Amino acid sequence: MFQMPTVPPGNVQVEAVNSTTVRFTWSAPSPQFINGINQGYKLLAWELTRSNEVSVMTARPNFQDSVHVGHISGLKKYTEYYTSVLCFTTPGDGPRSPPQRTRTHEDTPGAVGHLSFTDILDTSLKVSWKEPQEKNGVLTGYRISWEEFNRTNTRVTHYLPNLTQEYKVTGLTALTTYTIQVAAMTAKGQGQLSASTISSGVPPELPGPPTNLAISNIGPRSVTIQFKPGYDGKTSISRWHVEAQIGIIGENEEWLVVHQLTNEPDARSLEVLDLNPYTFYRFRMRQVNIVGVSPPSQPSRKIETLQAAPDIAPANVTLRTASETSLWLRWVPLPEWEYNGNPDLVGYRVQYSKAGSKGGVLSHVIMDRLEREFTIEDLEEWMEYEVRVQAINGIGSGPWSQPVHGRTRESVPSSGPTNVSAFATTSSSILVRWGEVPETDRNGLILGYKVVYKEKDSDTAPNFWEVEGNTTHSVQLSTLGKYVLFEIQVLAFTRIGDGRSSSPSILERTLDDVPGPPVGILFPEVRTSSVRLIWQPPAQPNGIILAYQITYRRNSSSSSAATVDVLSPSARQYTASGLKPEAVYVYRLTAQTRKGWGEAAEALVVTTEKRARPQPTSRPVVPQEEVQARRVLLSWEPGSDGLSPVRYYTVQYRELPDSNWTVHSASVSHETNSYIVDRLKPFTSYQFRVKATNDIGDSEYSQESEAITTLQDAPDKPTQRSCLLHLTPPRPYLFGGRVRFRELHYDRIRSFTVRTVNSPSAKWADLADLSKHKRYEIRLSVYNAVGEGPSSSPQEVFVGEAVPTSPSQNVVIQSSTATQLDVTWDPPPLDTQNGDIQGYKIYFWEFQLQNETERLRTLFLPELGVKLKNLTGYTTYMISVAAFNAAGDGPRSLPTRGRTQQAAPSVPSFIHFSELTTTSVNVSWGEPKQANGIIEGYRLVYEPCTPVDGVSKIVTVDVKGSAPLWMKIKDLADGVTYNYRIRAKTLTYGPEVEANITTGPGEGAPGPPGEPFISRYGTALTLHWTSGDQGRAPITRYVIEARPSDEGLWDILIKDIPKEVTSYTLNLDMLREGVTYDFRVIAVNDYGYGSPSAPSPSISAQKVSPFYEEWWFLVVIALVGLIFILLLVFILVIRGQSKKYTKKTDSGNHSNCTALPLTHGEMVRLDEGRFPTLELNNRRLSVKNSFCRKNGIYTRSPPRPSPGSLHYSDEDVSTKYNDLIPAESSSLTEKPSEISDSQGSDSEYEMDQSRQKTHSFVNHYISDPTYYNSWRRQPKGVSRPPAYGYSQPEPLVEHESRQHPPPVPPLPPLLPPSAPSPQPQGQGQGTLFRSNGSRTPTPSLLSSDPPQPAQHPLPAPQQPGLCRSATYRGLLLFCLTHSSHSNNNKTLRTSL
């Protein structure tokens, strides 16, 4: 078995050859330390500060020369490196030689950085620059030159020191274009030039973007871009930038610089190289001058490069032993950008063959681009193989990986040793010899041999004789059965186990010897004088039985008196006669072979016929000192033999507490009283019993022994559970365990190292300080107080490969776009990586939908970030990261939450139409399945599919907010198909969902109902209609549509009217007041809305207001209020001017009248200006409502006297003032309510009982006959006033006389005499003056009669003119009286 070299190459010398190459010389290590076949050398070089970036060059071994030479090229110029050399074999690399430090040579420098111009004048400018990024040595200075554009003969050159990085150029010509060049210099010469053009006196500007990009010559890895340069900014273009979006998924993909072209200001096309095959690209360009970088050009069209074979081989190919016939191959799959073709056709080809063999190459194709392991089956055991892998796609195959070697696991030999022979040396021994196991069948290191032997045709298990080591090929088998034919085989074994035995078996018999004693002696027939004896051949005949010899005598006699008889070898019974009764005889039986007589078997017999079965033995006992872990010594005392000697004993045992009795032996010798019971379990309780057997039969079993517990013993083999050191102990009462392990080698077996675990409950053992990337064999054993048990089966483990035990750290999520999340993380802690991290698995899923949406992204490179693309917009994702190495996947990190940005929503989930009529439809839609953000609203667009009346109107409606999700469309034309399109909006609008619908009733829909007519009742309208054709299905309901007459857009007003109803009442509150409406009715069945009825007559929704809400009523109320206010003012004025007076009764002219004083509220006087003045006190009077007269209840107005000849003077008032009764002392009694309106007169009143005198304008005339006659028409020129009388019975009011009434306030002043007065119209009207002879009115006496239920009509006036005047004045008096007392519920009775 080979190993890696243990020493490095010697005499290593390193020197730089040029600026990029170093030369190595070394001598090979000693062959004894290479430990295998020298496969070559590796030359290593790495920068001082970048030890993880090692340049490796492989050199083949040179076995002829003692000094080896090699080179590493491609190094950086003028850079210090550490260098080293190592030797490697198939198992791996040996140690490195001590690092040596060296530096590559100098070279010319690269271009200077950031060439720029400032202070630009007509004749001078300043040039500045920075050091070259690639110095490639020690800078010695700079070279600057300038010349007029395309005129080299005008060049001026200056050399500057290495610390100068700016220079002022002078002596320029104004407005002239110059080319200025700057280059750095080292000892190796001038470096790359940096040049730019500029016009003197014209400051440069930022360039504009290129235009007119065109893509051509598209190949797998390159394209050509033609373009038109943009504005150069008044200076030359120093560099062209090509940017690209790679693997385009959305418009927001990142732009990356993929190509740069420098110092080509006149370029019009360029070739972009190093592209990825079978990849989408979109390009754009920028141009750069000394001022800066231009804005980007417009993007080109999207192109896809052609397919190509893979460029690289799978990385990190490792090969491990899987089993005795299989190897486990693992690799890192290709990244997606390395597929170079259709991903569905990407796979891997595995090629394997025996190491060192030139033929027998096998391969296997795996058509799974994500697969990273493969198990190579059906290999030979313990065989080394060479394996390599390549990637394939639909175009071809990529390069092969570096070959890796592996050996199948060691197994048991597949055949036995050759040339097996056996030779019997004695009667109990055989010498066995054998040869080597064929090399192809060894399957591992042969650790020894085992000779397997057993008696031929025996059912017993074979016996093994082990010979350790592979040097001895013979063994002497001893203690064999004599003259026994044995089957003999030989097998080889490895550390894994025993191989196959040699075949065929070798038969060999041991030599013969004297036989053993015959067995099974019984006396089936016993008489007083004879017995019959039977037996079986010896159990160990030890040869061919030639004869039997039987000897018998009385037990009390000497042996010389015995009878001897020789029998044939086939004899199995013998009868002896002539015996004495009731005597004991001893019989001896022996067999004879070629070697002589063998051991004799003795038996006693009693010549009697009284034999019986034996009695049970005594209770068996086990002395404690005879108790061992797996056996005990059982002893007993025999019972009576029943005059027939015991021939043998049977021993039984049972395991406590619940086991059944088991026979341990049924052939215990009758000559012994003890027996060793073996094959017991350690530390287990048992009971035993015994029975005896003689010629007659079996005795009863003895009593059971006491419970006996065996001792502890060393543990059994532990049970291996799963992995390296997890075990299940065989039994309790352990002290601990021991772990034996050793490193496995291909060529030898090393000794075990033992680790003790001193804990009986331990089930894990930790083995540290093992060598990395080595295979180990591990065996386990346990021990207790007695000793150590056997070791377990060996287990093999490869150290250095274990899954990471910690998750990735510090997972951070950044939202990049609506479909992309950028995820970064840190690797697991170094001490938990357990190997080299080969990649990471990124698990991501939508929040709370892990089972439905979880996806996996695998990175097969140890990168620490990934861009998760093609996600759902505005969605919360949970992301977890797990590292993996060659051993497997580590634990996941805790899920981290991140959310993508908002994006356009998906299409609305559905569009649905309902309530379709001839002119309207209800459109509803569903929310998008993927909102991708916050829904801000919806846009509904509808248009007729064909023009309507030559016009195709497109209507767009924006619905704000996320609800409602429906809209009523009412401005449709009958029988026209409309197209509806709806899309949702977040930050922008998403895709549309569209559908078509045709207005009007469908086939099978009901016909139109009859034309509706309307009846109106107050604030409600009732529509009446008649049913029409029900269509193909019964009518289910009716719908009422309404429209304002001036708009013409029908809309559903009432939806669900039962089918049995043909009228419907609706409240005017449902309509807009003052608007005229049309109504129509539509029937509905299962086929949809039917045709509408004809429109109803237009009707206004104006409500009929009650009279108190009419305008005229408000005007009347206002006027009445105004009159009341004026009247109140008038009364207050009159009250202030009135004074109290009394009238005395004129006994001469009125003998039949009783004079009563006028009250203040009843006095009426006519002033000198001929104006009637009414004075009323503010009494609580009750007057009938004026509507009684209006409604015809009182059809007769009392006649009023004509005041044409009446005249009052101030004296009448002043002389009687003191007789007035003040209003404050009067009270009125309410009229009884039982007097109906038909019984009362026009005006009634009741007087207070305390009033003794009253005065009224009417009583004044009635009490004076002169005034009564003055109502009559007088001849022309006669000044006697006419009189008119009117009397009416009044109720009697009791009153008390007052001798001294209280004083009253003075009356207000009268109207001035000069005030104009209107002249009354009508014939017979004179002036309103009284004659001097009638200056004092005479009041009439108050009647003492009780009130009458009926009125007494007055005679009609005789003069028409007087009647008209009286009527006018009476009406005036009535109105004034009514207005003053309309709020007092009293009855005023007036007598004129």
UniProtKB/TrEMBL annotation:
Keyword Transmembrane belongs to the record: yes
Residue stretches making up the Fibronectin type-III domain: 8-107, 111-205, 209-308, 313-411, 416-513, 517-611, 616-713, 807-903, 907-1002, 1005-1103
InterPro entries linked: FN3_dom, FN3_sf, Ig-like_fold, Striated_Muscle_Regulatory
Gene3D superfamilies: Immunoglobulins
Composition-biased stretches (Low complexity): 1334-1345
Coiled-coil annotated residue ranges, if any: none
Chain segments annotated as transmembrane: 1111-1134
Bias kind Polar residues: ranges: 1224-1242
Location of the region described as Disordered in the Swiss-Prot/TrEMBL record: 92-113, 400-419, 1192-1211, 1223-1252, 1268-1362
Protein origin, superkingdom: Eukaryota
Keywords: Membrane, Repeat, Transmembrane, Transmembrane helix
Pfam families, sorted: fn3
Biased composition (Pro residues): 1300-1319, 1346-1358
Name of the molecule in the record: Fibronectin type-III domain-containing protein
Organism of derivation: Champsocephalus esox (pike icefish)
Lineage of origin: Eukaryota, Metazoa, Chordata, Craniata, Vertebrata
